[in-house]
Amino acid sequence: MAMRRAEVVCATRETSINLVLVLDGSGRSDVKTGIGFLDHMIATLARFSRFDIDLTCKGDLHIDDHHTAEDCALALGHALDLALADRKGIERFGSAYAPLDEALARAVVDLSGRPHPKIDLHFVRETLGTIATENLTHFLQSLAIAGRMALHVEVLSGDNDHHKVEAAFKAVALALRAAVKRDGSDAVPSEKGVL
Questions:
Q1: Helix (H, G, I), strand (E, B), or coil: what is residue 26?
Q2: Domains and CATH numbers, the chain
Q3: Does the reported pTM lie above 0.90?
């Protein structure tokens, strides 16, 4: 079987990104975005999806964290879309629950080709480390849009915002791992015949 891999290189006035994604990996990551907490979440996504992710971003962090978070998510989603190609022979759907201590998150994904994010993380704090919590929500929204997927993520319970978002990223990773899994066929999993 061919390795499902994609490379994305993009540069704007706001960010410069180099990304390599391997869907059939081992969960290895090398992430350097300049935002420690974002690095931690992308590494978590890699580990539990079993994707290999190499990502370097040089962003305009002297302004704020928004462009870096958004553009890393867009690059990762685009790489996922490229690696899936015509989306033949995949399970397409995935869902998972993930706890982290008192926090519990649910993620459901449909690699439908139709982007639709619905993200409810229920943060209390404004920041985690040096990233605004709203940009962690926006990361998942941007990932869904660029990855051309329906992505529903909800924190069902929790008190600690770090625990809530980490549970959410783990649930997303597990759902993606299930959705990209090869099903042994050469068919596109759609009544329309295309995704």
A1: coil
A2: 5-180 (3.30.230.40)
A3: yes
